[in-house]
Amino acid sequence: xxxxxxxxxxxxxxxxxxxxxxxxxxxxxxxxxxxxxxxxxxxxxxxxxxxxxxxxxxxxxxxxxxxxxxxxxxxxxxxxxxxxxxxxxxxxxxxxxxxxxxxxxxxxxxxxxxxxxxxxxxxxxxxxxxxxxxxxxxxxxxxxxxxxxxxxxxxxxxxxxxxxxxxxxxxxxxxxxxxxxxxxxxxxxxxxxxxxxxxxxxxx
Length: 204
Ligand SMILES: [Zn+2]
Description:
Elements: E1 3-5, E2 8-10, E3 15-23, E4 28-37, E5 40-48, H1 56-68, E6 75-81, H2 86-90, H3 116-127, E7 134-137, E8 151-154, H4 159-171, E9 177-180, H5 188-191, E10 196-197
Parallel strand pairs: 5-6, 5-7, 7-10, 8-9
Antiparallel strand pairs: 1-2, 3-4, 4-6
The protein binds zinc ion (ZN).
């Protein structure tokens, strides 16, 4: 099946990369995307880095993965967004957007009629996360802190979904896997909890 997001398209067995515009109100940003459409059918996995501007490791990891992954290696589709929050990443800001001072990981799933960061969150949901079978959001230390490697996921109350999330989290291979038991409004993992969702993320 063709993998199409905005004007970007990748046929089965092909890889495509480009940028899509996101209208944030006072400015329009370009969101880089790499689409890897596998040679064989399977689920769609979305991976984001750069939700927080000061966390460089996820940006680097997602970019490297995008370079390494080939369609012949993939059963399903992989959508990689190395810089999910361009104003914060390119502004080198710790956790907030320089446009409005808002931490995007508090406002998911966002509001397309809201301020710039709400619009950015809504754009990510509409274009990337809503179409995903599984979602991985990469966070890390960076400007302000060092972190041990860990994977986090959040319990949803849906046993089948929780089992998938647990499986994804442990599949990363890190010794430390943590999970949240309470709803946590505004974070990516909360905003998409109806889907399979896990990733190295930190509790900010
Ligand atoms: Zn973060």
